[in-house]
Design goal:
The complex is a heterodimer of chains A (159) and B (136). Chain A is α+β, with helices and mostly antiparallel strands and 159 residues long. Chain A is built from three helices and ten strands. Chain B is built from four helices and seven strands, in the order H-E-E-E-E-H-E-H-E-E-H. Classes of the chains: A alpha+beta (159), B alpha+beta (136).
């Protein structure tokens, strides 16, 4: 599904201290893992992209259970969203024509394979930035469902 | 048994958590609660709305294992993940934490903290973060 513009804008290259994002995955037998992400971007208004920076447990889960939930908090705008859909990881070394849910490794890695070039990690405050950038690839979530998690309407589909 | 530090407590109580749940076959559902109460060494309680209860009730009944990530600014400033078993008592979600991990992106991502001596966890925190909780 195509994301509403306000969600795309929130997830596009942004200040990591304004919009807070977690990716939740699960093992195939139901043990969840939450990974916060300082960086996100959106491709074709439908695919959420997150750099793989030591996302070890997330990748273990995605290797056996390709689904994820991205939860977004945008406090200054009073907005909260949860986006669920097929989720996988595109690693350096995969052939250019490797296809995940309609995007290829080549098109993703050429643009987002070295995230530090588009969002310099060194510009982040010391307390939150990674001590080293060793990006292994890009995590991709194709949004299939979008709902709010505001307390009174938690789980209500937005579109 | 895991033991939360004062800093962990302050962030969870101040800004709540993203709470990951899943069916026993691994289909995830996440709710977000903006405050919590920590009791004893490792019990975290969340007061849920009816809508939140409805969203996760089935998951918790069939699979009590949950994961918590500190909410709001805590997602980047309080880089912890808490895992444990949960149960619902009315609209209160009670989580008994039995695993604590560091989630700071980089080489320490995924480091398990609760297996360290408690004093070592405090030292780990004090050498990485200056705050003791969210900004007032």
């Amino acid at each position: 599904m195509k994301l509403p513009k306000e969600i795309v804008d929130a997830l596009k290259i942004k200040d990591p201290q304004d919009v807070f994002v977690y990716l939740t995955t699960s093992s195939v037998d139901g043990k969840c893992n939450l990974m916060p992400s300082l960086f996100t971007d959106v491709y074709q208004d439908e695919f959420i992209l997150i750099p793989d920076l030591f996302a070890i447990k997330t990748k273990i889960n995605l290797n056996e259970n390709r689904i994820g939930v991205v939860t977004i908090a945008y406090p200054s705008e009073g907005k909260t969203w949860a986006l669920r859909g097929p989720c996988g990881h595109i690693e350096w070394g995969l052939p250019d024509n490797y296809n995940f849910q309609g995007v290829t490794a080549g098109e993703v890695l050429r643009r987002w394979g070295n995230w530090d070039e588009i969002e310099p990690v060194s510009e982040l405050p010391e307390e939150i930035r990674p001590t080293v950038v060793a990006q292994r690839g890009v995590i991709v979530l194709k949004v299939a469902e979008c709902y709010t998690y505001s307390p009174e309407e938690s789980g209500k589909r937005i579109s | 048994m895991a033991k939360l530090t004062p800093r962990m407590r302050n962030w969870l109580e101040g800004l709540g958590a993203h709470i990951g749940t899943a069916t026993k076959k691994g289909f995830p559902t996440v709710i977000v609660v903006d405050k919590a109460k920590v009791e004893g060494d490792n019990i975290v309680k969340f007061q849920l709305t009816d809508a939140q209860v409805q969203q996760i009730k089935q998951n918790i009944e069939e699979n009590p294992r949950v994961a918590l990530g500190p909410g709001g600014l805590g997602s980047i400033r309080a880089a912890y993940q808490f895992k444990g078993n949960a149960r619902l008592e009315g609209n209160t979600l009670i989580v008994e934490v039995n695993e604590i991990y560091c989630t700071k992106p980089g080489p320490e991502a995924g480091l398990r903290l609760d297996v360290l001596p408690y004093e070592s966890i405090l030292k780990f925190e004090s050498t990485r973060w200056r705050d003791q909780g969210p900004p007032k």
